[in-house]
Amino acid sequence: MSSETLPAFIESSNVERKQSLSEEQEKSQKPRLGEGFEPISKRQMKKLIKQKQWEEQRELRKQKRKEKRKRKQLERQCQLESNSDGNDRKRIRRDVVHSTLRLIIDCSFDSLMVLKDIKKLHKQIQRCYAENRRALHPVQFYLTSHGGQLKKNMDENDKGWVNWKDIHIKPEHYSEFIKKEDLIYLTSDSPNVLKELDESKAYVIGGLVDHNHHKGLTYKQASDHGIDHAQLPLGNFVKMNSRKVLAINHVFEIILEYLETRDWQEAFFTILPQRKGAVPTDKACASSSHDKNSASVEGGLDSDSSDEENSRNELDSQYEEKQDKENSSESTVNSIPH
Questions:
Q1: Which of 36, 83, 290, 318 has the least CB density, counted as fewest CB within 10 Å?
Q2: pLDDT category, 299, cuts 50, 70, 90?
């Protein structure tokens, strides 16, 4: 190549290089200018569609929220109308009249109970607290001699007890802050029967779950401390299949019910569980006398059948005597060493 043609060749190559560089720059700038035309993935496409649908349905969602608010308003209004007879809980709470009667659960028997019974006592106390909070005439509720196993169990399983309202929880014995003449210990072993409740008094319930292992203990303690004692008039109104000893929460709830109704019989039959087999004493007496009369009438009419039954009994007794003799002879034979 001649020296004359060399500069022309270099210049043309430089021009071509500049053109290629400008083309590359244009290509690199195109995606930036036309971002909306870039290819996107399926996932991004789905997101865009969802976003678009969300924006389109915004008004529809607002309308649904309005309808829901209106529906709830109507439901509340209907509920208030249906509870206009006074059964609404809020209405009841407004009508609460606190009683001046003090009701004490004596927890000084902690060392006499195993952990299983302590847990039962805790549950019964919880029930008493809940019922007193719901009652129309709540009492002045005291929990005394609080400590030991019971406190430990409550700390572990019911930490909210420290926030309980309308209850006096004290580590001291009740005799340390209540006058002796104001105290009445409720115990089923007392010969004294309550006729009515004196709201100026403090009634004590023994906090003991012992399954009758320590019978008469609460009565003995009341007598030793020189405290008045009495039992609920259960026998005057109720005939039960089981023993007359009631759970702590049952005694508590019966007193709450009596303060509301001033009727012992209604209080007993409202609170006592069905397993106790409780029936009114007048009905129990009538049914027992009816059973006796019917038995005597049947005996007078069916003399033949009774004679037949007696003869059967004689035969059975003779057979039993014979079997006893045979068994004794067999045992004698078996006892002889071989």
A1: 36
A2: very low
